[in-house]
Each structure stands twice: as C-alpha cells, then as structure tokens.
C-alpha cells in the first residue's frame, strides 16, 4: 500500500518538511530495535476531523517506553498538543497517525544509556494495509515471541520483525494475512491485528499471555460487544476453535474490523457474520461521532 506524503512531520518538538525528517545511519534504534510506537487514526466527523482514543494511545506509548527503560523527553500533554498542531498543519480530514520514540545517534553497542531519545509524530493518508474485504488467512510457521522474552504489553519496534516475516510468508503463499501461534501452540494474533472468534453467540479473543498485543481496537470491540449485550471471553484459543467458529474477524487501528473468509483453506460459515456486521456498524458510528455514547473517545482537531 503506497504512502502519500504530507507537508510536515513533528520532529522533536518542531514541524519540519517531510523530506527533512531524517536521522543518522548509526541511530541506535535502527540497529537494535530500541523504539516504541503507536498507530492512531483520525476520522472525519460532522464536527470536523477527530483523533480516536488519542489519550489511550499516548498512555500506551508511555507504558511501552517505561518497560523498555527508554526515556521520554515529552509527556502525554505535549505529545497531544503536538499531534493536533501537526494535523492542523497537514490539513487532513482523515488519516493515519504514527507516534514514534526511539534511541537516536549517540553511541553504538547494546548499552543504551548514552543514546538520546528522538520523538516523531507523522500523519498521512493511507488505506487499510489488509484491505476491507473478507480475508484469506493462513497459520504461519513463525511463532509469536515468548511473552517472557518481549512483553506483549509493550508496542516496541524490534519484535515487529516477527510480524514482517509472517506476513511475507502468507502473501508469498497467496493469502491475505498470517495467524501466529504462541510457543505452546495457542492462538496469539495476526501479524498486525487481534483476532476474534464467534461461536454460539459468544465472542472470544486471546489474552496477552498468548503473546497478543493488548490492542486498543481490541478493547474497543470488547466494549462495543458488551454494550450490545454479547457475552465476551478473553481466554486461550486453539486453532481448532477458529476452524469450528461461526464467524471470525480481525481488528486493528489501521484495519478496523475485517471479516475472515477462510483459515488454512477452511471456509468459515459466513463472512461477514451477523455479529461482525453489527460490531462494524457500531464501530463506524463510534469513530465518526455518530453514536453519542462514545464521543468521549474522540479528540477534535479543531
């Protein structure tokens, strides 16, 4: 999916032209994956563009940095202000946002203490990287990283190599997306989305203990489902639980809610299923401000 350049990027507290947002080739994060990130969305609403769950994303960014012992030179309030400043400058009605903090140029080697933190906020117009049609998913030969090796609650850059390899394997084999299993064989998540299964009217999704990211869109879906009166369970799933499901879907900030058509060449009974459709409709109403109950999730760009 091509990336459409925007006029400016917020780079360590200042707006700079897109092409001038550069780092040194010996940047620590480039060599050792010492960085944390957030993907956030801006949606068009009747009152103008608004950022969806900005405060939650910035809290998770700070939590991820804390887990990696990565010093953050900017607090949540400064980053929120910088985010809105950037969006006004770039003039987006809707877009994708990337908050990114990483160790910069200062020292080489595994000792991270002498490298300063660089902080970036970028915005661009970008369609979902997995598309909006029902997906054909395959179980990857790559396993999700052990949660005792890399904490799944930290959205860090280094572990994304795992996802890159799984996605490449899936697309090379003619599939749309990859499903990763945990080291013990339990279902973890897809390469960049959390996964849900519906059976007998119950909505189920794997926990962080299976190596799955504690997704903000995942949390959104669970909240919406409960508000619809749906029983939800966050628990370990086996691959066979997905094969036997009435419907399966994935969710993520970039993807939204996307139904799964087949898993390992096993067709699902319906794609999208009834609950997937209901959740997608309510999610769309929430992110666009059409449903008043969820307007507290929106930060107007204004």
UniProtKB/TrEMBL annotation:
The keyword Amino-acid biosynthesis applies. Pathway: Amino-acid biosynthesis; L-leucine biosynthesis; L-leucine from 3-methyl-2-oxobutanoate: step 4/4; Amino-acid biosynthesis; L-valine biosynthesis; L-valine from pyruvate: step 4/4; Amino-acid biosynthesis; L-isoleucine biosynthesis; L-isoleucine from 2-oxobutanoate: step 4/4. This is Branched-chain-amino-acid aminotransferase. Its cofactor is pyridoxal 5'-phosphate. Keywords: Amino-acid biosynthesis, Aminotransferase, Branched-chain amino acid biosynthesis, Pyridoxal phosphate, Transferase. Acts on leucine, isoleucine and valine. InterPro entries: Aminotrans_IV, Aminotransferase-like, B_amino_transI, BCAT-like_C, BCAT-like_N, Class-IV_PLP-Dep_Aminotrnsfr. GO terms for molecular function: L-isoleucine-2-oxoglutarate transaminase activity; L-leucine-2-oxoglutarate transaminase activity; L-valine-2-oxoglutarate transaminase activity. It comes from the Bacteria. Belongs to the class-IV pyridoxal-phosphate-dependent aminotransferase family. It catalyses: L-leucine + 2-oxoglutarate = 4-methyl-2-oxopentanoate + L-glutamate; L-valine + 2-oxoglutarate = 3-methyl-2-oxobutanoate + L-glutamate; L-isoleucine + 2-oxoglutarate = (S)-3-methyl-2-oxopentanoate + L-glutamate. The lineage of its organism: Bacteria, Bacillati, Actinomycetota, Actinomycetes, Kitasatosporales.
